[in-house]
Amino acid sequence: MLDELCDLATRVRLLAKSEPGARALRDLLPTRRAMLYFTQPSTRTFLSFNNACHILGMRTSEIRDPATSSEVKGESFEDSIRTFSSYVDVIVMRTKESGRAAQAARLMNNIPRPVPVINAGSGSDQHPTQALLDIYTLDRSFEGNGSIDGKVIGMMGDLKRGRTVRSLCYLMRNYRGVRLVFIAPEQFAMEADVKAYLDEHQIPYTETTDLAGALPTLDALYVTRMQTEWDTAGESRAVDLSRFSVGERELTRLKRDAIIMHPLPRGPEIDPVVDQDPRAMYWRQERNGMWMRVAVLIKIFAAESRLLEAEPR
Ligand code: CP
Q: Taking the model in full, what pTM does it have?
């Protein structure tokens, strides 16, 4: 499935480069409608899903602030979701609370007109479509250098509360010989549930606070910011971020063919000077997100055969 989605994303990306290709894509799902229910702030995920829908000719509705929905009158979460499903064919949702998308999907399993639910980020728990676009970015980046198999992937920053790294760890069981290096302040180390999953699936990982020592061993460094929005008493301020940041000095220790990723938005953990380095992949990564989300929508609506017809022979 991951390989299929990466392949689909590439085919769509290439097709969209030409005017006739972009028009053919717009004709793929013109009768489908999406609800973008984003009650937690988002720039990339919202915009990339919105534009992914438009690329496929879909129409979108949105709620980005529960204060503008009938939730403010006391409507329950379940009733709100069921109402969305009366009007649209897919619900894409980002919430501050963990587990909400799963809750919505369970509700859909018990109503007469269910629609698919896509988790666009739930609490500090999961961000599955980010993990898909991260896989696509790793896959594309390693094209001339083998594949994801056998690579050493460093994940750095607030791993405890970072949902992107949590979701990405789960997908690593699909690759052979991958090793993970968690680089984090002790108080923001990767959570035990993810480590138990990695142990269960025999995915080796090490933990360190020594970025400089880890850098030369890595094929990819996935940097994350401090998730200050989850602080209850200014916990993030206690961290010396200079030990978990990438700048010119760190670039000299990183392999010449390694890549640097970041789900963005960034804080001080990546100096903007790094943007000029060819190993910086995060701007491409966020654009990959749009193509991967197009691929996800095509899969959900089983439109692959129609895509095939749209492609030049
Ligand atoms: N990577 C990511 O989820 O970014 P946004 O919060 O801007 O959507």
A: 0.97
